[in-house]
Fold this sequence. Notes:
Blueprint: E1 5-6, E2 25-30, E3 40-44, E4 52-54, E5 75-82, E6 88-90, E7 105-109, E8 125-127, H1 129-137, E9 142-145, H2 159-166, E10 170-173, E11 183-188, E12 199-201, E13 205-208
Parallel strand pairs: 5-7, 6-8, 7-9, 9-10
Antiparallel strand pairs: 1-13, 2-3, 4-10, 4-12, 5-11, 11-13
Amino acid sequence: MVQIYDITRTVSPTTHVWPGDTPYSAERVMSISNGESVNLTTLTTTAHIGTHADAYYHYEADGYTIGHMSLAAYIGPVRVVTVRKESGPLMPTDFSHVDLVGGQRLLIHSHVSDLPDDQWPDEIVYPTPELIAWLASMDYVLIGLDSPSVDALDSKDLPGHHALRQHHMVNLEGLMLKDVPDGDYELIALPLKLDQACGSPVRAILRPLTTS
Length: 212
């Protein structure tokens, strides 16, 4: 049996969301215990709950909504790399301990993966436009983080987000990479085909690459 690493945060009413955003709730509108034929729930939450993908429309008015984002970047070979830094911007030099040449997708493992789902990180690392441009020059198509943003938590101009679109890359946020060894995998993290939405939760998994 092929080992699967589930790198998705559990979505529950206690899952921390961006301050001021809509938390998760599940309202049961039909119940077998009440004699009805099925259990039926209505879900209410933000598009950016837990492990999720941003659409370009999230940060640029003319960007694609999530249902129109190309799926190709969200599935395929990926490299998981742990960074030593615990806060602040990430530059190419922060990856001098690993060879990223020949990769297509990068997942960055930081201390945030050690935090429970209901805890908001006080400090995060985030990719600089320089790092994004460097990865794009090597034909990377996706960058994923265990933190809730690809920019500083107090950023208003969102240079990392805008750099991603400029270089035709996509991002994942809120990953759970605890206990995942650094190395190469297959990533599957497809967003839902939601109309008019600025993002989507994903069920993200990693499968070890098979070798001949």
